[in-house]
Amino acid sequence: MTPPSTSEATDWSRAPASAIAGAVSAGTVGARAVVAACLDRIARIDRTVNAFTDVLAERALARADAVDAARASGRAPGPLAGVPFAVKNLFDVEGLATRAGSRINRERVPAARDATLITRLEAAGAILVGALNMGEYAYDFTGENIHDGATRNPHDLGHMSGGSSGGSGGAVAAGLVPLALASDTNGSIRVPSAFCGCFGLKPTYGRLSRAGSFPFVGSLDHLGPMARSARDLARAYDAMLGPDPADAVATARPPEPALPGLEAGIGGLRIAVADGYFARGGDPEAFAAVARVAEALACTRVVDLPEAARARAAAYLITAAEGGALHLDRLRRRAGDFDPAVRDRLIAGAMLPAPFVERAQRFRRWYRAAVLDLFGDVDVILAPATPCRAPKAGQATFVLDGVTLPVRPNIGVFTQPISFIGLPVVAVPVWLDGGLPLGVQVIAAPWREDVALRVAHHLEGRGAVRAPVADLG
Amino acid sequence: MTDSPTPTPPPDLDAYAAQAATLLGLPLDPAWAGSVAANLRVLRAAADLVEGFPLPDEAEAAPVFAP
Fold it and tell me: What is the reported pTM?
């Protein structure tokens, strides 16, 4: 690993997770000093970004003291020692009502315990500092929230952060935390990673426990980390692995950590660019970003994911139906308390005839088999994360390939066909010019997060992708 | 007998939404009806796309329940 520069090493509020963990473990800095610097930066910067909905200063400082005490007594403080992190506010945090971006959920009984992934990160020495803004009930790609206000894009405050994990993308890109947790049902990790210029890992469906998180679409919901390097993603991911009987779909596979093989390079990997559906319907820059990554990987192959448009349509149907069913009782009693844009999509979803949804699930079976066949010939597939750079805040429509479309449901055109069958993806940030970043999906076969992370790390080493802290002072 | 179903007229999604809301016990404010119908139109188009792909009877739904 490249040692942090002097300025990074001393500015703990903006340091990478791996550098913090190394310094806290070595005793170069105390966890309390790191957390205090982080809290100070949040207090100074977040009023412009609006990433946080809850800052847990007292809890975080107490936890930091515990990490410092453990080290002082000779106990290993863990691979994430002293690393501040924050979570999308659909994760249960002991003592907080799990709001999931909504007004209604604020009346819930406060969570009795932390979500599984928070517990696992803290067991590795990380320190929760707060909860993060998100689109209402995660049915969103913009990062806007009618109740809490939009999270602004740290690299241009007049633009969207992307969603629904907008607070997670905003907090990481603004350097408020080096690590955030988020959820991804149709693209909600990959879209804000692309718009905010950071790294995001959407693992294989079932890989990381969802226990203690507020659901959206059980068939498609994933949780994962966002950070400013592939190494930090891998370090957090490894700490969160493991079976969990509290999540019905959590895998019983033994943990397969990614960090040990991160430096293995790309030798022997068969890499291809997704063609067809993934090569049209977006701005030229979206495809230029993929070409930039492909060039850095010396990749000249292309591959066609069959029936991707239908896969997106099927994901759209399942999302609407399961989301509508999940919220039906709230729609009956509290419809006026929803964001209208979310409410009307959920109501329509609740009204879908069952055969439409069953057909979509049966198509999912076919599509899974067809795409798994492709992974007999390739190890990694590259595709755009979004069809464009971050739209302006409040923008309702955009023009893609000459067609005017509503922004909100169409930002995820390239992410939905991938999460539909649960493939692991690392979204990597590409800076083509002086403008806002774009994201590229590095897609691997099921259970091969290690491969996607290796490729992302290699790309960083080549200088093709990077996640700078936004210049906000 | 023919393999092709008899063409049906486009659905009246405003009327469908009103009836479905009754079936679901869902109060539907008239001010929202147009937006709900517009969303149903998008979903119907997605369903048409999925239904346009022939699937064998053996293609079981993807979710698996493990007792």
Answer: 0.96
